[in-house]
Amino acid sequence: MSKFIKIPKRFDYSVSSDFNAAVGAALADIGADKTVTLDCSEMEYLDSAGIGLIVMAHKKALSHQCRVAIINTKPSAREILLLANLQKLIDIQ
To answer: Using CA atoms, how far apart are residues 29 and 16, in angstroms rounded to an integer?
Structure first.
């Protein structure tokens, strides 16, 4: 079963500690699906630090033979993720 992490309204460096802890906990308790899903339904703001956090989560997931997926992105956040070419690393829905 996929592990879900709810991304906050503002996804930047200020949430890095909480986000990294959530990713670590999800990877420690991952099921057979081997997917950590980032639910971005509440996210309204994303900066370069937020993109960096997603990339680091992707790298950590790979080291656990897992993957990261992003769901429920708002159009403006989705555009930023696509401009950063994250779709080459992560499934963005």
So the answer is: 20
